[in-house]
Every structure is written in C-alpha cells, then in structure tokens.
Amino acid sequence: MTPAKKAKLHLNRGNALDRLKMMIRIRRFEEKCAELYTQEKIRGFLHLYVGEEAIATGVMPALNTDDAVVATYREHGHALARGLPMNAVMAEMYGKHEGCSRGRGGSMHLFHEPTRFYGGNAIVGGGLPIAVGLALADKMLGHQRVTACFFGEGAAAEGEFHESLNLAALWKLPVLFICENNLYAMGTALARSESETDIHTKAASYKLPSESIDGMNVVNVEAAARRAVAAIRADQGPYFLEYRTYRFRAHSMFDAQLYRGADETKEWEAKGPIVRFRDWAVTAGLIHAADVEAIEQEVSGEIAKAVAFAEAGTWEPVRELTRDVIAGGKL
Amino acid sequence: MTELSYRDAVRQALIDALNADERVFLMGEDVGSYGGCYAVSKGLLEEFGPERIRDTPLSESGFTGAGIGAALGGLRPIVEIMTVNFSLLALDQIMNNAATIRHMSGGQFNVPLVIRMATGAGRQLAAQHSHSLEGWYAHIPGIKVLAPATIDDAYGMLGAALADPDPVLIFENVMLYNRAGTRSDTTVDITSAAVRRAGKDITLITYGGSLWKTLEAAEVLASEGIDAEVIDLRVLRPLDDATILGSVANTRRAVIIDEGWRSGSLAAEISARIMESVFWELDAPVGRVCTAEVPIPYPKHLEDAALPQVPGIVAAAKATFGTTK
Predict the structure, then answer these.
(1) In which domain, by residue range, is B32 found?
(2) What is the pLDDT of residues B34-53, one digit of tens each?
(3) Is B325 contained in some domain?
(4) pLDDT tens digits, residue range B289-321?
(5) What is the predicted pLDDT for the residue at B2?
(6) Is residue A214 predicted with pLDDT exceeding 80?
(7) Average pLDDT, chain A
(8) Can you list the domains of chain A with their CATH numbers?
(9) Which residues pair with B291 in a beta bridge?
C-alpha cells in the first residue's frame, strides 16, 4: 500500500472486525496471564495493559512490516498487535525455550527480529534513545522506515525523554513517539509528579508536531497514528502522540492500588475501549452481536492453544546459560 | 615505522575506519567543530562531513542510547563520551541495554557499538574530572573493555573493536595522548594481555596510564637486582587469565598496579584469580598499588600522592621479597 493510501482510515466491516478482534485478543490473553500468574505458571513481574488496548491496536496498522517498534515492560499488547505469534509470546511468559526471546526475557522483554520488535525495555525512558538510534540508522542508510516508540507518561520525568525528543527533532529523524498516558507512574498520579501535566506540550517545546488524543477510542487512535506516520514518511521529522488512557488493573501483580479509588476505575471501565468500540460498531451496523460471539470463541481457542504450546515447551538447558552473552557464548 | 603521538594514532585509526566502512560514524560532544576535547578528531569534520562526524548536545544517555539503536539498525557507530566522568550519565544505556540485549533477546539482536572515552587523573582536574572507572565497566558481562597503553594499541584496537559484533568500550588514558612513539605494521588482537618486559623474579600486572610508570619501576628494580616481568592487561574484560597466571606461576610473585581505587577494584579481581589458581606457586602474598581512597584533590602534590607512582611500585615489589632483598 502506498503511504497516501495508508494515511487514510477507511472503516469498513472487515477492519472493524479486525480491530475489535485484536483488542479482545489482547484483553483475553492478559486475563489468562493473570490467572496463570496466580497458578505460578508465570512469575516475576507482570504488567497488564488492560484498558489500554486501543492504542497498540490502533497504531500498529499504520506501520509497515519493515518499520521498527520499541516498547516498554507493559508490552504484551504491542507484541500481539505487531504480529508476534501468540504461542511464542505465551511461551515467553512461561520462560520456556520456545518463547520469542528463548525464555530469557519473560513478560518485560519480548523481542522478535522478524517483526523488528526491539523489546520490551523495563527501565522507564530507556527505549527512547534506542528508537532515536534506529531512526538515525534508517536515515543515514537511506531506508524509508519509521520507528514507533511506546512509553508511559512517567517517562516524561526522565532525562532520556527530553534528550531523545531533542535529538530526534534536531536531526529530523523518522520516529513516532507514542506516549500512553494512563495517569499513574506506578502509584504516583501525574498531577503529583509533573508541573506540566499536558505531556504533548513538552514535545511541542522541542518543535515536534504533537497531539493529545482520546486513547480509549480505537478509531481516533488509528486516525491520529496514520496522520503522524504520513507526516514522518513525508520526511517531516519526528511526531509525538499523547494518548489519554487508563490502566484498569494494578501496576503489577504486587500492587495493592492504595493510591486510587475503585470508583475511579469503574468510571473508566465504563468507557473502556472494547465496550465502546463494540457498542458503536454494532449500533452503526458494521458488525453484529453474533460476530462478537464468534470472535470471543476464536480468541478463546487461540489462547487455549497458546497455553498448551507453552505448557508443552521446554526449559533451556542450563549448559546454555552463558550462550549469547557475547558472540560465541563465552564470558 | 612511523613516529607519532598516541593522539595521532587514535585519529589515524578513526580516519582509516571511516574510509574503510561507510557504516562507521563518530558521534559525541565536541567531536566536530571543536575537533574533540583532546583534539583526537581534529580535522575530521572537514574530511567526512557533519553526518559522519556528528556533534551532539550534552545528552550522554541520549546519544549513547542512540548509538545502541544505530548499531541495532545496521550502522557501526563510534560513540565518544568525552571522559569517563560523564559516562556515569550514560551508564543505564551501557549496562541495561548495550550489555543485555544479545542475551535478553535470546541472541536475536546484537549491538556492534564502540564507545571511546578518556580516563584517568594527573592533570590537576580535581575530584569530578579524574576518575578511573574502567574497572567498574569490567564488572559487566556482555561488553568488552579495552585499555590501550601503546601506540600500536591506540591505533589497532579501534579497528578490532569495530570488527567485533558486540559492544566494546575503549578507555584512553588522558596522560597518554601526548606520548610519542613508533607504530609498527603489526595488527593487534583484543583478546590477550601482552608481556611488555620479560623477567623472572616478579610479575608486575598493570594497564593503561600506569604501564609506563610500571616499566620505569621495573628498571629501578633491575638496578637493584630484581628482574621484573611487566604484563600490560590491554583487555580488562574478558581478562586473559592464561598470560597472567602463567607469568605468576613462573615468577612466583605478583604486584598489581591499578589507577582505580583499591576496594572492589580490578586489582582485587586479579589478585583473587591468582589466589584461586596459582596459590601454591606463590612465594609471597600478592601486592597491590592502587589509587588512595579519596576524591582526587586539585593540588599537584596531593594528586601525585593519591595516584600510583614509581617509588610506590618499587616498594610494593620489594615488599614481596620480605627482608631478603
């Protein structure tokens, strides 16, 4: 598809079903992960994206297969939306050898070379400079590619956020910065940690075109992403999108959520991306109730297969512990 | 054989690397218009242009991370962090990304990145500009750490580092830039330590700026009848155990000279390896000459007193002989 064609969003029955299915895939996958966590099949940190699915779902279709993605430790949704096989992602959640990172990374470090998925970065803000570098390489090598970099609003407090925005704007690099503003950096509310809570205005101060968008509406998300990617591909330099969203679940499985009330969460859940898009699409006659049921069944089957795949997976032999520390495997 | 300075050797290595591979570029603070804080890249901007001799803002974490990304994206970046002191602002990128990505991604991605930086004290730059933290970096699996002390290494290690598929850090001691010498045509490896002076009575193990002080100390010792072998580590990670342990097994005595602070130092690591492997060959406890555990002071007499010096090395070497010599 040409960039111009891709820039426009044509919402028809086919892609309405695709978007709804992707959001449901991510939601149900993570619900299964939470369940598997209580069974101790998945260990370590588990950061769920529940509530924020519209963003990864809406942004990925704006990208080409040879574009790059840099994500955070809350990246299951990005990985699935980018096209990583669910089996490999689930096996990675288990730490199995068949996982997308050979089981070494786990939930926070999903990597996938075939889709140019560069993690899975678990230091807040740490992925932004890498995205700048990937885009710098593309520019210097003459590749017409975009690097999409996802991060939360907490990253705006890190120096790397400011350094990276400045570098990308200064060097006119093809980076799409995507801030997923879910209002809490772990337990610290945005208003308690930033003097300027309109994150996209920070980007504007580095002369990046920037927008703030309702991140709970997958149609708006995708339209903005296509607009931004088209501008980047037209060699206009980096672009910054702030999506306003909300995390329905705890920060991680260790979070007692003392910092917010249940009422607030309920309020956001009522305008959640899946119910909202589903109800709208049904009302608009794009899809039918039976479609939703069919999607749920299909997704349920896919998840069951992924769990079976992960269960049947193997553990990397201990003798391979030091493999790939550096080339050749020796320390 | 060509007579040149250590600075010129690094510059020539940069020029040759830039000419040999169009994926190579240099990025860092003041590498372009200024010509490099230590004048290493003087004239390169004019020769190679601003794309490949890329001045950066004072954003150590940002441009070091960009170097990692550029390496992942198919380039062969050389990131110059002006001095090791500022590398602390890039430590997250070096440790959490450059060093981990190959292993953490299950071998899918590698980071062929070279990071050069100046290190060391001796120019009366006081506490914040006199660190020797290469030993810290040598703690990290996933990277290689080089400390060129000679003209051949100053030239040759850069090309070898660029050919390596993993991140390589090169520490250039500030006191060596003006040091002149000749360059041979031999290629150098980045895997082995070098015996810079053969001897049979004691092994003096060192690297970087301390090599020349140690060689001087070895001459003093020779005049007093002690024949010291001097090992230049060259590669601080991974350490060349075979050369170190082989020499110590032969001489039965060892002193390690390290410009890092003593506690938790590279000298401590080497000492431990000697104990572990050739303890029964030793005739004396392993000695160490390290930097005094103080922030490096500004006045020359105090700075000199804080750093390893020739008399201290000679004394430490003699101490391993007890009262017999």
Answers:
(1) 2-183
(2) 999 999 999 999 999 999 99
(3) no
(4) 999 999 999 999 999 999 999 999 999 999 999
(5) 72
(6) yes
(7) 94
(8) 3-320 (3.40.50.970)
(9) B261
Across the interface, which of A147, A166, A327 has its CB nearest the CB of B59?
A166
Show the tokens assigned to B63. 């441009």
ipTM of the complex: 0.95
DSSP 8-state symbol, A153 = G
Nearest Cα neighbor of A148 from B69, B102, B304, B57 is B69
Distance CA A16, CA A31 (A): 23
Residues with Cβ within 8 Å of A150's Cβ and at least 6 positions away in sequence, in order, are A55, A56, A59, A69, A70, A71, A72, A75, A78, A127, A178, A180
Asked whether residue A249 carries a pLDDT value surpassing 60, the answer given is: yes
Place of tokens 């993993």: B166
Whether B77 and B125 share a structural domain: yes
Contact: A133, B69; criterion CB under 8 Å: yes
Query: Residue A79 is which amino acid?
Result: A
Q: How confident is the model at residue A4 (pLDDT cuts 50, 70, 90)?
A: very low
CB of B72 less than 8 A from some CB of A: yes
At residue B254, the 3 state secondary structure works out as strand
Within an 8 Å CB–CB cutoff, is residue B92 touching chain A? yes
**For residues B253-259, average pLDDT:** 98
| Cβ contacts of A238 on chain B, cutoff 8 Å | none
Residues B160 and B262 in one domain: no
Q: Looking at residue B23, what DSSP letter applies?
A: T
Lateral strand order in the sheet of B168-173: B53-55, B24-28, B76-83, B114-119, B168-173, B144-146, B235-237
Task: Tell if the CB–CB gap between A130 and B61 is shorter than 8 Å.
Answer: no
Alpha-carbon distances, residue A135 vs A36, A45, A250 (angstroms): 37, 30, 33
pLDDT over 90 at B265, yes or no: yes
pLDDT band at A331 (very low <50, low <70, confident <90, very high): very low
Q: Hey, are the CB atoms on A327 and B74 less than 8 Å from each other? A: no
- Whether residues A164 and B57 touch (CB distance < 8 A) is answered with no
For A161, nearest residue in chain B (alpha carbons): B62
